[in-house]
Each structure stands twice: as structure tokens, then as C-alpha cells.
């Protein structure tokens, strides 16, 4: 809650935001921090207020992606479906829905016509005729990351055709209304910030045009506020399982393609509709936004769920690291005390030392299931959850692989069968069914 944030931290946050506005010559900038699902701080500097709508640009894509995945969860489509099955008649029909979500379909980045972000939009039929013809491909599907605004126009059309009404009406009914996002809309609603370009060599402004981009709108047209984006951050932090299943969110956050640039270690990748970052092992996800006259950023810390939001009405200038800087000023989360948890006796009996041949592994009970890890050094490990007939790996080498408990006739545990590997309580236990057998002379 806000009362738990120290006055000194609040003052420091306000001061940092004021410095961002002044140092980067932004007409206005607003920001907010979310902790435990609460907007614990929000601030404004310059001519805007936290009640103003700002255009959030490509953060719009995260809304479209969530709705596509909800359609998948409802059985209306599969991520492996070809685009042709849902939006026929384009040259990109052999790409999959998942590839469009992850920007790996090899599709052109922008439209074939004039700079679409500064000109009125066209219907999807006109867009497809001009931009989804034989020259639309830039690489074979699945080859590499290639950001595509046009791809999200296709996904918006997919949602519309699946649900029989415009994509933004679907989002308003199925996502915005349940979340209480009453200040998020397709077009600006007062009070709303006007978009500007700031001259690079003089302190003067140039108004940027604003249009309805029609078929291209799913790529970046939504307008929103700090408070509304805080609610959306809560969904992306897993606080609304009634709208987005936890397993689906986890799938969204899995890196599909890395943003690989020669000569540099990669720290950014793309999941299914979200950007994912890895900063020295600290994972976060969200999306940036950029449209003429506006910049935006939303980042959610994967471990804590702490989120940072920033919106400004300038074509350039917003610091990429502003959100992280604000979270640092807010300070660390209070350390939650350790509490014991209930563990079923049959699960508790599986914990402890196991051996894959001579390799020592440790199996621990967790609140969600089991976790296997090397006793020392690097090696294969995974988390496991209960499934029909045994356990299923969640990550690492054993992701989606089965873990089966094999028992003696009297019910006692003989060994574990992990994707055909046998784990025994002692190295190469002769009482277990070790593939290839154990030398009868034993260890020597």
C-alpha cells in the first residue's frame, strides 16, 4: 500500500521523474510503480497529469496477443495453425500463428505504402492487397527475429474474424471491462495528451499527426493511462488467472526468438506477444511503445511481479532505463518470512538424494511440486508438477518429459524413471531396473 512507501522514497521518485522531463526535454512524462497488484506510486512532470491518456504504441500488441492465446485456450485455434486457415488470401499463409506472435514469420516490418504511423489507415482488404502480396516475405518463416508491425495487423484481423466483431471491441468486452480499464480506448478521450516532436537543436515543438490507422491499429493505436496500465501489468504478473491461465502466461513468457546482434551478447528476446529481457540472470517482460508523438514502456519483474510504467508525449527522448531506475529508488520488497507448508507423505518420501548412474542429484519438495537439481556444480535439473500417472517436467532439459515413480510389489519405491533415465537411491543400485544392467561383480 502507498502508506508503506517512505516519504523520502516518494520525494526521490518525484525528483527523478522531474529530472527525466527536464534533462530529456519532454513536453510531459508520467510514470507509475506497481507492487503486489497496487499502484504504490504515480507521478507526472511537465504539462501532463496521471489522469491524461497517452498513446501506448506497441504495448497494444500485448493485448492482441493475450486475446489470441485466449482463443487458443478456448479451442478456437492452435498456435501451430497456418495463417491461411484463419486469414486466407495472403502470401504469408504458410507462416504459423505462433510465428506471427513472436515476430519470427519473416514478414515485412512495415507497410508497402506511406509511413503508416503518420497517415490515415486503410481497410484490411486494402492493406493485404498492398502489403501482403508476393513481396511481403523478408526471410523464411522461423529463421530469425524480424519485428513486424504488419504481422499484428494480421493477428488483429484474425481476432475479428474469429469473434465476429472488431478486435478492439473484443478487447473492450473481454479484457478491459473485467480489469476495470475504463480509460483505455482506441481513440483519445479527454483529458488526453497531444503528441509532439521536439526539435533536436532548439527548444521548440512540432505537433505530430494522429489518425485512426484502421487495419494497422492492432500494431500500436491504444490510448491509456498510468492507472489502467497498472491493471494490465497485474495481468502480465499473473494476478488474473480468471482471464489468463497461469500456464498460458508462462508459455507467453518463454523466449521464442532472440534479438541477436553480431558482436554482442543477447539480453533481449521475444515471447508470444511480449518482449522478454535477461539482465544478468534477472528476468523481466513487457513491451515498449513508439508512435509519432509518444513513447511508452511497461516492464514486469518476473520474480517479484513489481512493475514500472512510463508514458510521454514526445517522439524521442524517453530513457530506456527509466522504469528500472524508478524501481531501484522504490527499494527492495520486504522479505517475506519463511512459513512451513503441507507436503503429502508420498511426496515427502521421494525427497532427498538420487543418483543418475554415479551423478548425485537432490530432489526437493516445493509449494508447487518437486524440484530436481545437481547436488554440486552444473547439470541437468527441472521442476515437476503432478500430472496423470506421475509427474511432468516444467523447464530445463526435462521440460514436458515424464517422471514416473516405479514401485516394488509391496509398494516401496524402487526407482524413478525420468524420460527413460533411471534414478536410484545409490549409484547403479542393483535392485533397480537399470537399463543395460549392472556388472554383477559390482564396484571395484
Automatic annotation (TrEMBL):
Cited InterPro entries: AmpC-like, Beta-lactam-related, Beta-lactam/transpept-like, DUF7586
Pfam short name (any one): DUF7586
Domain DUF7586: 344-425
Domain Beta-lactamase-related: 13-317
Domain of life: Bacteria
PANTHER family named among the record's database cross-references: D-ALANYL-D-ALANINE CARBOXYPEPTIDASE, D-ALANYL-D-ALANINE-CARBOXYPEPTIDASE/ENDOPEPTIDASE AMPH
Name under which the protein is recorded: Beta-lactamase family protein
Organism name: Rhodococcus antarcticus
Amino acid at each position: 500500500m502507498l502508506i508503506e512507501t517512505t516519504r523520502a522514497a516518494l520525494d526521490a521518485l518525484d525528483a527523478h521523474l522531474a529530472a527525466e522531463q527536464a534533462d530529456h526535454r519532454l513536453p510531459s512524462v508520467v510514470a507509475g510503480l506497481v507492487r503486489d497488484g497496487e499502484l504504490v506510486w504515480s507521478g507526472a512532470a511537465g504539462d501532463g497529469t496521471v489522469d491524461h491518456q497517452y498513446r501506448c504504441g506497441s504495448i497494444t500488441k500485448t493485448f492482441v496477443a493475450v486475446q489470441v492465446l485466449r482463443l487458443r485456450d478456448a479451442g478456437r485455434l492452435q498456435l501451430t495453425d497456418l495463417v491461411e486457415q484463419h486469414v486466407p488470401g495472403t502470401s504469408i499463409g504458410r507462416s504459423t500463428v505462433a510465428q506471427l506472435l513472436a515476430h519470427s514469420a519473416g514478414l515485412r516490418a512495415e507497410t508497402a505504402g506511406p509511413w503508416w504511423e503518420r497517415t490515415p489507415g486503410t481497410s484490411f482488404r486494402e492493406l493485404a492487397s498492398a502489403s501482403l502480396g508476393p513481396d511481403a516475405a523478408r526471410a523464411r518463416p522461423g529463421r530469425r527475429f524480424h519485428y513486424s508491425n504488419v504481422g499484428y495487423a494480421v493477428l488483429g484481423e484474425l481476432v475479428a474474424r474469429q469473434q465476429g466483431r472488431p478486435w478492439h471491441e473484443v478487447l473492450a468486452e473481454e479484457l478491459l471491462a473485467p480489469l476495470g480499464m475504463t480509460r483505455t480506448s482506441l481513440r483519445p478521450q479527454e483529458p488526453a495528451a497531444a503528441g509532439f516532436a521536439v526539435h533536436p537543436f532548439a527548444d521548440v515543438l512540432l505537433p505530430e499527426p494522429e489518425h485512426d490507422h484502421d487495419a494497422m491499429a492492432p500494431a500500436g493505436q491504444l490510448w491509456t493511462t498510468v492507472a489502467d496500465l497498472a491493471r494490465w501489468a497485474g495481468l502480465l504478473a499473473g494476478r488474473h488467472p480468471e482471464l489468463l491461465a497461469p500456464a498460458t502466461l508462462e508459455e507467453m513468457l518463454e523466449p521464442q526468438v532472440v534479438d541477436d546482434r553480431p558482436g554482442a551478447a543477447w539480453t533481449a528476446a521475444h515471447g508470444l506477444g511480449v518482449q522478454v529481457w535477461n539482465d544478468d540472470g534477472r528476468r523481466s517482460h513487457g513491451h515498449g511503445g513508439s508512435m509519432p508523438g509518444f513513447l511508452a514502456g511497461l516492464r514486469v519483474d518476473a520474480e517479484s511481479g513489481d512493475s514500472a510504467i512510463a508514458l510521454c508525449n514526445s517522439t524521442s527522448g524517453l530513457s530506456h532505463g527509466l522504469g528500472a531506475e524508478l524501481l531501484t529508488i522504490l527499494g527492495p520488497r520486504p522479505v517475506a518470512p519463511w512459513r512451513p507448508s503441507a507436503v503429502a507423505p508420498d511426496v515427502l518420501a521421494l525427497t532427498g538424494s538420487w543418483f543418475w548412474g554415479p551423478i548425485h542429484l537432490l530432489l526437493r519438495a516445493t509449494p508447487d511440486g518437486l524440484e530436481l537439481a545437481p547436488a554440486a556444480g552444473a547439470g541437468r535439473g527441472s521442476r515437476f508438477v503432478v500430472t496423470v500417472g506421475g509427474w511432468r517436467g516444467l523447464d530445463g532439459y526435462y521440460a514436458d518429459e515424464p517422471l514416473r515413480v516405479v514401485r516394488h510389489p509391496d509398494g516401496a519405491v524402487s526407482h524413478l524413471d525420468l524420460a527413460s533415465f533411471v534414478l536410484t537411491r545409490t549409484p547403479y543400485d542393483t535392485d533397480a531396473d537399470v537399463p543395460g544392467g549392472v556388472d554383477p561383480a559390482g564396484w571395484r
